[in-house]
Amino acid sequence: MSRPITSGTHHIGLTVSKLEESAEFFTSLLGWKEVRRNEEYPAIFVSDGKIMVTLWAIKEQPVCEFNKNRNVGLHHVAFQVASEGDLASIYKTLSNNDVKIEFAPELVGQGPAKHMICYEPSGIRVEFLWPGK
């Protein structure tokens, strides 16, 4: 095959234990829009205008929390930001709202790209990356 058969990401589906809180993380703290809800599943769909994240409520509590070093599954999800200032702004907003931060904005390798990682309310690792361009 000479070219990929896929053409980018349509959406990311995340199973969460705190549906409303996880949705609020995206909408209230990051400025995303709620696109729709599925009360039967239940699920909440949020978008930043370029990508959609589907938040699916778990049906029962997990046996144990996900461990990125011991479990097969999503290591983290990463979202790009437009500027170093935007990265700093996200860090400040999350810090001021008691979001668990794994690490503050720092260089990726030798830079100039920078990134940070936090945990959304259900415990999923979320990275924000400024590519340094």
From TrEMBL:
Domain VOC: from-to ranges: 8-131
GO MF terms, alphabetically ordered: metal ion binding
Transmembrane segments: none
Keyword tags: Metal-binding
Superkingdom in the source lineage: Bacteria
InterPro entries in alphabetical order: Fosfomycin_Res_Enzymes, Glyas_Bleomycin-R_OHBP_Dase, Glyas_Fos-R_dOase_dom, VOC_core
Keyword Kinase included in the entry's annotation: no
The keyword Metal-binding is assigned to this record: yes
Listed name of the protein: VOC family protein
Organism encoding this protein: Sedimenticola thiotaurini
